[in-house]
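Private note to self, pasted from the team thread so I don't lose it. Backbone tokens:
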């Protein structure tokens, strides 16, 4: 699912509901500054997550639920 370059600012829990077979998610080049804690609970098959070029200031706790994640891009954010 490619949602890159869409001016998305927040990812909320209900945004990904019903996508249980989702394996790749592209959220590159948005304005994401926050990802809700339970956001990825409904995407247990997610293997690639592209969050580069956003406004994140920390690694989202929600990523801890992605047990099958093989690739994570957090480049060009404001994480210190």
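Design output:
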């Amino acid at each position: 699912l490619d949602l890159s370059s869409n001016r998305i600012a927040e990812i909320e829990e209900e945004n990904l509901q019903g996508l249980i077979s989702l394996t790749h998610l592209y959220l590159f080049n948005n304005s994401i500054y926050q990802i809700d804690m339970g956001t990825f609970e409904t995407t247990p098959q997610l293997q690639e997550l592209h969050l580069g070029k956003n406004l994140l200031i920390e690694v989202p706790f929600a990523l801890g639920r992605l047990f099958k994640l093989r690739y994570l891009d957090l480049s060009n954010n404001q994480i210190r």
